[in-house]
Amino acid sequence: MALPPPPGIYVPVPTFFRKASAEEPTHPLDLDTQTKHALHLANNGIKGLVLLGSTGEAIAMTEDERRTLISHIRHEFDRAGYKDYPLIAGTATQSIEDTLRQLEISKEAGAQWGLVLAPGFFATCVTQQGIVE
User: Fold this and answer.
1) Is pTM, for the whole model, over 0.70?
2) For residue 116, what are the CA distances in angstroms to 32, 40, 88?
3) How far apart are CA 131 and CA 133, in angstroms?
4) Spatial distance between the Cα atoms of 11 and 50, rounded to a whole number of angstroms
5) Where are the beta strands (DSSP E) in 15-129?
6) In this structure, what DSSP letter does residue 60 have?
7) In this predicted model, what pLDDT tens digit does every residue of 47-69 receive, in sequence order?
8) 7 pLDDT exceeds 90?
9) Of 8, 75, 90, which Cα lies nearest the Cα of 38?
10) pLDDT at 2
């Protein structure tokens, strides 16, 4: 079992997108703004970041976009001297298999922890022990 993240303040970070254009009609990720914002938070005392787990945009993103975002932030933090800076990745899906896949992808991309959405629709059928398992 993984250890919990170090104590401190963790903030949910919005995902930034560039304006769609004829060349890129799908609102591509704005990795420059994402990096500047994330480093601003780290440089000002925030202990860790929650990526893809705050405003709901992650469910509309592709697997590749999620991976790209996490790996880009990890790379830029390493480059800026924040080698082990805590990153928590949101892995909200309504499928256990998809959530496990998102956790795997997030770990490979550089996140040390995952934020998991417990199944709310079937809340009365899920025990605390079932969530832990």
Assistant:
1) yes
2) 27, 26, 10
3) 5
4) 6
5) 48-51, 87-90, 113-115
6) G
7) 999 999 876 777 788 999 999 99
8) yes
9) 75
10) 72
